[in-house]
Amino acid sequence: MILENELKKGVIACDRKAQLELYHLCFNLLMGVARRYKKNEEDKQTLVNNAFIKIVTNLYKYEERSSFQGWVKRIIMNEVIDDFRRQKNYKEYIDQDCPIDEIHIEEHPQIDYHHSEQELLAMVECLPNATKLVFNLFAIDGFSHKEICEQLGIGIETSKWHMKEARKQLKVMLSKQLVHAT
After folding, report:
1. How far apart are the first and last CA of the chain?
2. How much is the pLDDT for 51?
3. Among 34, 82, 97, 178, which residue's CB has the most CB atoms within a 10 Å radius?
């Protein structure tokens, strides 16, 4: 994703056509991140729109020597974290949306594990909200446990626990899917 200098000047000058062009340029990246953190379309769109407003209002700060895609991704990630802080409801983050039954996990070394991106994303969606947030930040977006702790205001052991819990629950879901497939 490359930001043309003329487009940047147009957006800074409040040209609506330039802003719309920038929106189309950024939309897929913004929505791709929003999909990993929000379930319903309205919440995803709110994240995208809030991040886009920050992009437009701060575009004058963007320096061409850095990656525009990286700059946009950092803005949407900060918006995800800000949203978590605004919506912090501990009961919601403790409850599970998809109950996970305790089952015996069997090893099937002779079977290839192939899952579509949609199947894997659906499994991640079933994680409790806080666990999903920490998992996405750590495993997908590359944040360290220290960065996650600083951003979310949680302890490092809490962050590590959420990662361990995510792995455990995803393993159970994959095993259940494997049992149903055989």
Report:
1. 43
2. 96
3. 34
Mean residue pLDDT of the chain comes to 82
What 8-state DSSP symbol labels residue 152?
Answer: H
- Do residue 98 and residue 174 come from a single domain? yes
Contacts for 14 with CB less than 8 Å, ≥ 6 apart: none
Round to whole Å and give the CA distance between 70 and 171: 31
End residue of a domain, out of 55, 86, 117: 86
Judged against a pLDDT cut of 80, whether residue 14 lies above it is answered with yes
Q: Which amino acid is at 36?
A: R
Per-residue pLDDT at 19: 95
Domain CATH code at residue 125: 1.10.10.10
Q: How far is Cα 56 from Cα 140, in angstroms, rounded to an integer?
A: 26
- Which residue range forms the structural domain that includes residue 94? 90-181
| Residue tagged 């055989």 (tokens) | 182
89 or 32, which is more confident: 32
Asked if pLDDT for residue 58 goes beyond 70, the answer is: yes
The reply to whether 22 and 99 lie within a common domain is no
Q: What is the pLDDT of residue 110?
A: 44
Domain total for the chain? Answer: 2
